[in-house]
Amino acid sequence: MVSVIFGGHPEMETSASHQFLYEARPDTIPFIQIKSPFIEEDVRAYQEAILEADRWFLQFPLFWYQAPGLVADFIQEVFSKTFMDSYSKDLKGKEFGVIISVGVPLRQYQAGGREDVTISELLRPYQSFARAIGLKYLSPFVLAQHSYQPEHIQQDNLVRFRQYLELPTQAKFADRNAWLIHQLELIANEFEQPLQEQLKLVAAEWAEEMDNLSDIEAHLPKTSWR
């Protein structure tokens, strides 16, 4: 699957959250910083990157409950009438996701919370945009108060983000475990013996346990609930 991320933070270099996201993404997924002012050459490059991708993302911070103006300008410039008249059929079915950072605990984004609004409500315009041009809208990835989080939460965010980018939509438990096993195998190759062999053994035992779970699941009676 070919993916691309468009960065819409107007001060990317000074944002710890967005530097984290930039570094955390797989090397196979290009990150294209949106430039302003918009010139024809850049707009054409953005359009070509979207057409070549199976899945593309907009990454930006929420400022006062909305994206920076750079993001709105990007959508307006890239998805011009001329572009849509020529390529609307090519866009249909592509996956589109939003990656955002917020400076407030995520639990506050709910009815009755301090913000008294949900993330889904704030991002509704992007869902509507996706539906209007035939894109498949993905659940957003939200990074909340990154700089204030302890190291183990930041590590968890890294894993969640990598899985968000690399795994299929609505990935199952088995998919996530297979991804983790593969990552462990890759990490093992970075070490020398005997640690390398120990890590590979852990990965092999983990994979065997997942196979056993799959066998058990296959023999369970089918139900109507999920």
TrEMBL record:
Keywords annotated in UniProt: Oxidoreductase
Gene Ontology molecular-function annotations: electron transfer activity; FMN binding; NAD(P)H dehydrogenase (quinone) activity
Domain of life assignment: Bacteria
Annotated InterPro entries: Flavodoxin_fold, Flavoprotein-like_sf, KefG/KefF
KW Transport (keyword) present: no
Domain Flavodoxin-like fold residue range list: 40-157
Residues spanning the signal sequence: none
Protein name according to UniProt: NADPH dehydrogenase
